[in-house]
Amino acid sequence: MGNSAEYNTSWDEGNEELWDKKYQVWEKRDWEEYLEENLTFPFTATRFEDMDSNPFADTKDAPFSVGHSVEVLGIDDEDEMRGIIVKVKEGRKKGYLLLCELEVISRDDKNFWPVREYVVWFANQ
User: Per the confidence metrics, is the pTM higher than 0.85?
Assistant: First the structure.
């Protein structure tokens, strides 16, 4: 790992055994309850994925687009198929995004690991 406070996905490589152990814990976790207890709102996150987007559309300037930073205001709901839905704000616009499409960039942010664990668990379920 480097000294940088920004997360780098290469840090996950070679840690498969650790992730397997963590995943067993995550499978039993009530994620909505856990996140309500472990996240501090509001916090800043970056949208790194959009599961509903048209890959051929140029939406990079639209609010809440991939690559944009948003302020996560709170948990709104949990959908059985799509996961945790959070209320977000970008500029003056408010909306709703899937938590699994967001990441907290700084490892120093206390919200980094709860969000990261959820995203990794959700992607592997």
Answer: no
CB-based contact 98:50 (threshold 8 Å): no
The answer to whether residue 2 sits within a structural domain is no
For residue 3, is pLDDT > 50?
no
Residue 64's domain is classified under what CATH number?
2.30.30.530
Helix (H/G/I), strand (E/B), else coil: 78? strand
Residue 62's pLDDT is: 74
35-85 per-position pLDDT tens digit: 999 999 999 999 998 776 545 555 567 778 888 999 999 999 999 899 999
Do 22 and 117 form a contact (C-beta atoms < 8 A)? yes
For 5, other C-beta atoms within 10 Å of its C-beta total 11
Q: Which residues pair with residue 44 across a beta bridge?
A: 71
Q: Is residue 52 classed exposed, middle or buried when 0-12, 13-18 and 19+ CB atoms within 10 A define those classes? A: exposed
Backbone φ and ψ for 40, nearest 5 degrees, come out as: -115, 120
29 found inside a domain: yes
3, part of any domain: no
